[in-house]
Backbone:
């Protein structure tokens, strides 16, 4: 089969690899119908050292079950399924608490012999705990929106949920990528009264306004902080959802959060430490939260809105390509010519 591998910064190839097979009785084999390129995939695209053996790529996919191991009971061949970006058993204490990204027996795609979703097929470990069956066909118009439940929608929702967004809350979202836009959508769903989107790409911020943002601040750094403070009477907002992961975004978050507020980070941090001392978080009683979203925990709660057409998170996909063209998709996202690329396998 064909699969996407990265061999170093900027070096993405689609190669032939052996077809996946059932290795454990808890496995399922899934034929990938749609996958995508994530903003977090651009981090290794920028800095992965030369890797002669290659690194498999992709952690978001939906598809059709082709085969299952003897102990799998919740899905069977022919089912259309969503695969969250972490696989998990669904039974350990962390999974029962809704923190599947810390599953005691689970893991992440592209590590420890479990390969990625930018491919024609994937072996899914712990299929009963990982996969979610959806009552649609693979040709459904809902497929792009269902794919967002694999990662970006759940990640945006996680940011808002962990931030405590509720009716009457004021929110700043930092970042106009797919996760930031899903954070806007989620903040609106949770009842936020005011949502300020910090982003400077008009096509993206226009979509943010459609998803529920009330204001857009294009300025960055101190200028952007001053603008948000101006919009909020000098106070800042109750919650800040940081969806970038770079230090300037974190510093902006500190600059725009209201005293007693919450910073919720879901952008994968590209730094080893961050200000948390008296002048930044301690003095004004700021709470810092967030982390890798347990997307599996949010699929069932968010799924009805997608199936009923009440939300259309699939609008974040603005380019569709075939698997063969995945290297071009990475370049398009890196050049900001595409917001999020959908991949047909």
Residues:
């Amino acid at each position: 089969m064909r699969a996407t591998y990265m061999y170093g910064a900027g070096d993405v190839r689609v190669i032939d690899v052996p077809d996946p097979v059932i290795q454990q009785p808890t496995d399922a084999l899934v034929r990938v119908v749609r996958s995508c390129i994530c903003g977090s995939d651009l981090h290794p695209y920028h800095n992965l050292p030369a890797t002669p053996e290659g690194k498999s790529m992709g952690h978001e996919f939906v598809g059709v079950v082709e085969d299952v191991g003897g102990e799998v009971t919740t899905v069977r061949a022919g089912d259309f399924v969503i695969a969250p970006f972490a696989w998990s058993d669904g039974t350990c204490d962390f999974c029962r608490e809704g923190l599947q990204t810390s599953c005691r027996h689970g893991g992440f795609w592209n590590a420890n012999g479990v390969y990625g979703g930018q491919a024609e097929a994937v072996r899914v470990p712990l299929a009963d705990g990982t996969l979610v069956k959806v009552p649609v066909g693979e040709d459904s118009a809902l497929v792009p929106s269902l794919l967002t439940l694999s990662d970006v929608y759940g990640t945006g929702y996680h940011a808002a949920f962990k931030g405590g967004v509720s009716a009457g809350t004021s929110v700043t979202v930092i970042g106009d990528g797919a996760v930031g836009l899903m954070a806007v959508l989620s903040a609106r769903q949770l009842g936020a009264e005011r949502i300020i989107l910090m982003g400077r790409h008009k096509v993206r911020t226009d979509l943010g306004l459609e998803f529920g943002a009330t204001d857009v601040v294009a300025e960055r750094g101190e200028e952007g902080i001053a603008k948000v403070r101006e919009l909020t009477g000098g106070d800042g907002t109750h919650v800040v959802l940081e969806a970038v992961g770079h230090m300037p975004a974190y510093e902006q978050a500190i600059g725009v959060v209201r005293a007693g507020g919450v910073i919720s980070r879901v952008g994968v941090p590209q730094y080893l430490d961050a200000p948390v001392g008296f002048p930044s978080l301690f003095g004004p009683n700021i709470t810092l939260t967030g982390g890798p979203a347990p997307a599996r925990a949010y699929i069932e709660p968010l799924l009805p809105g997608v199936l009923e057409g009440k939300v259309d998170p699939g609008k974040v996909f603005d380019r569709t390509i075939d698997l063969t063209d995945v290297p071009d998709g990475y370049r398009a996202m890196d050049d900001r010519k595409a917001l999020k690329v959908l991949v047909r396998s």
